[in-house]
Each structure stands twice: as structure tokens, then as C-alpha cells.
Amino acid sequence: MKRTALILLLLVAMVTTPLFAGGDKEAKSSEKVIRIAEQVPGLITPGVWDGQVFSMNSSMYEYLVEINVGTGQLDPVLATDWSTTDGKDWTFHLRKGVKFHDGSDFTSKDVQYSLERTQDPTIGHLKKQDFSVVQSIETPDDYTVIIHLKESRPTFVYQLTDYNMAMLSSEYDYAKYGESKPMGTGPFMMSQYIPKESIAMVKNPNYWDPALPKLDKILIYFVGDIDASVSMLEAGRVDVVTFVTPVIKNRLSKIEGISVISPYQEQRFVAMNVDMKPWDDNRVRLAFKYAMDPQIIAKSVTQMNLGEGAQYNETPIMNMLSEYKELPLRQRDIPKAKALLAEAGYPDGVSVALYYASDHPFGKELAQTLKELALPAGFDLELKGFTRDVYLSQYWLNVPTSITGWGGRIDPSMLLGLAFKGGGPWNESHLNDKRINDLIDKITEEIDVQTRMGYYHELQDIFYAEGALLNVQVPYLVAINDRVVDYRQPLTMIPQYKYTDIR
Question: Has this prediction a pTM greater than 0.90?
């Protein structure tokens, strides 16, 4: 125990001492500075950004619209208003007087570039499929964009809240500089960047809203070990630590001046790859589901009761969303699970590997709980945990069983095409079911709200009966020093540090 504590202290010292050398080494006493510990990022350029370091990208880049954390509705950002009559032709009016960090003006050409960039085959843009529906883009003047879609998309505007849809400059070489000199229109601009180690950002003096941001500087430390990040928080070296676990939450509850909040719930998808045995047989998938106990999973994984900060279902739709269909929780039934396995040709049980990110909150706990629950039914889960960067780069999408952290989407149709439609870039279950594909298409095209809701319900019925998914919803926990005021982070996962202040 003493050796572990010593290693953590040494790690904290190594992480914090050399960072922000020169002008950013120490903040002036009059400056408002917030310090953040985040996970080590992979790629950071919008379009190929893997979802790490939300604090960095959301502070340097901006979007046409954003989610209001209080109302859940869309607020204007770089677009001042938007409209459509048929869901097929969309008009956006842009904010005037906005400048990129390099001094160039933000205009309709930049919006056109950012949207057309999704289809550039050299980029491998993660929103390529969703924006392939764009037929043409008109820019009649510098501050008007008219987007013509190939077919109706009544919720198209929500696609623009995806964290990979930041607006980029049509005049900047992101292929060359996106990973080393990131640049957008955001409230903060890069001052110093040491890849994989740290970034210092300073207040954008030309930000379009003169009342924002309230902070002068953001300092971010990239720390691969959550315990080291928390030690930095406890020592007063950082103010915010993301992706906190329930165990750490309990530990911090005893420390005055630190709070742990949950801005929203995340999802942990337990995906069964239908292209690999034994999950190619729905009887095996059902057997696995009958081996589960949602109450035990909630309590064991999150230390919360089911329905009190943790949720469970067998569909891609979060319980909190209006599109969710209430389906009965499948009761644990070991004899039935064994019978289904035997019927599928596994009378003596089956061994299968389960891959997960060992350093991602709830990953270890969920993997171990699944293993223990499944064993009496005849499933021998071989647990294979790797750090999140290794898991995502080397194993994810190509393994028989996986646990992956998924953020919620304010419009769930945004996730369906990515993760559950045949050919989707993040389709970890390798589903290619015509019924599911057709329903996803109907959901994305249907203008009538009630008809669209019916399609959502039909989709969830299929997943409940035959799907290759368990959806364990867990709290996204952020530990914050009490001197931080007005921390905002909506379901889009994008922190809004422009509103944040310090006492």
C-alpha cells in the first residue's frame, strides 16, 4: 500500500512539475485560471476525434448550435437561427463578426467546407455516413447557408451538435496542423501544447460575445491514471477531474471543498458480435440475457440501486429519452438459459472472450459482474482488459464480446446509424439486419413525431427479442473543487467552459 501511494505521489510530481513552462508556468494572482485533469487523448482533430479531451476541443472549437443544460433545447451559437418546412431544405443564418483564432472571418464558406469535409475520403470522417444525405449546399451570401438534403431529415439540426461537427476554417490546413496547432472560433485559444502531456489555453480576446468567457486561462493535464488525477485534485493542483468512479466519489465525499456531480448518464454497451460464434445464434444471446440480473448489475457496478442513478435495458435507447419504450426487465432464469444454450449446441456451456477498457470508469466492475452472473448459466467469460487507447485502437469492433463506453445523443437517431445499421463505422455488434436498417431509415426520414415514435418502439421490440446488446446506463461523474462556479456539460458531452467562473 505504501509503495502504491509513493508511486502515485511521484507520478503527480512528474505530471505537474514540467508542464506549462515559460509564460504559462505560473498564473498571475489576478488571473482566473481553471486546471483540469483529463485522459490522454488520441487524435484531436474534429472529424477523427475519438471523444477524449472534451474540455480542450469544446473550448477551442464551436458549433452552429448547442444544447441548453437548463432546458434541453437548442441554443444558437455560430448560427443565429435555422428553419425548414419539409425537413429536406434547411436554411441557417450565421452570426456576424465571428473570427477564427488566426484572425480570418467566419463565413458561410467555412460551414460549407466543414460539412463537405465529412465526405472527404482522405479524412475518414466519423460523421461521413450521417452527412452523406447532403445533396448540395448554397451560400448566397457570407452569412446564409442553404443545405439541400437528398431526403427528409426532420431532426437534421441535431446532427450538428455531435462533438465531431465543430466548424472549421476553409482556409486552414487541418491535415497539417490539426494535431499540433488546433484552431477554431472558440472562447479559448491554444497558448502552449505538449502532445499527450498538457495544453494551456488563454481567453480569446476577439470572441464574439464580449461577456464571455469569464475565465482567463484553462490548463489541462493529460493523465493516464485516474488515481493520479484524483491525487492532484486532493493536493489542490487541479480543479476538475472527469470520469470519476463511484469508489472515488465515496473517497472524495469525506474531503471538504470537493464535490462530485453527475451532469448526465452515459451508456456501457455490452455488444455481442453476431459475425462470431457463439453470438451468431440468437438462442445464445437470449441465454446470456436470461443469466443477467439488472438489480445486481446496477448495485455491483455503480453502487446505486436500479432507477436511482443507474438504468438497464436491452436496446440502444437510453431510459431517460422520450423515445424509450418501457419493456419488462427480463428476470434472471438460469434453467432457461442453460436450456437455450443446449438447444443451440452448447450443452456443456461455452467459453467466449470479453474485451473492455480497464481504465475507463465502470469497465472492470461491469466485466467482473457479467462474468459472475453468466457462469452458472454455462458462460465462461474470459476477461481481457486493456487501457482505453489500446482497447479502441487494437481490439474494439473486431472481438466477439465487448464493453464500450458510449455517450448519449440528444437525438438517438444520431447513434443508430453509427452503431447499429449495416455498414455503420462504429457497428461493434456487426449487425446488418434488414428490418433494423429499414427502421433506422424510417426514423431518420419521418416528419410526423408520433409516426417516428412508433418506429422507435418497433425497433426496440426487435432488440429486446433478438438484439445483440445490453445497455447499462451509468452516471458520468465529475469531481470539482468548490471554487468552480457554473460547470455546464449537456448530454452532447461537450463541456461549456465559456460560462464557468471561479470564486
Answer: no
Q: How far apart are CA 222 and CA 55, in angstroms?
A: 11
C-alpha cell of residue 304:
446505486
Q: Which amino acid is at 56?
A: M
Considering the domain delimited by 265-475, tell me its CATH architecture.
Roll (3.10)
> pLDDT tens digits, residue range 361-403?
899 999 999 999 999 999 999 999 999 889 999 999 999 999 9
Quick check: 118 and 52 in contact, CB under 8 A? no
Contact 128, 134 (CB under 8 A): no
190 touches 60 (CB < 8 A): yes
Sorted by sequence, the CB contacts under 8 Å of residue 106 that are 6+ apart come out as: 78, 94, 95, 98, 99, 100, 167, 169, 185
The amino acid at 263: P
- Find out whether 243 and 39 touch, Cβ atoms under 8 Å: yes
**For the domain with range 65-159, which CATH number is right: 3.40.50.2000, 3.90.1230.10, 3.60.150.10, 3.90.76.10?**
3.90.76.10
Query: In sequence order, what are the residues at sequence separation of 6 or more whose Cβ sits closer than 8 angstroms to the Cβ of residue 153?
Result: 87, 88, 133, 159, 444, 445
Domain 2-61+175-262+477-502 CATH class label: alpha beta
Q: What pLDDT does residue 8 have?
A: 42
pLDDT tens column, 38-63: 988 889 999 998 777 799 999 999 99
Could you tell me which residues are beta bridge partners of residue 222?
38
Interatomic CA distance for residues 427 and 273, integer angstroms: 9
- Beginning with the edge strand found earlier in the chain, give each strand of the sheet holding 79-84 in spatial order: 79-84, 89-94, 144-149, 134-141
Residue 47's closest CA among 117, 146, 142, 133? 117
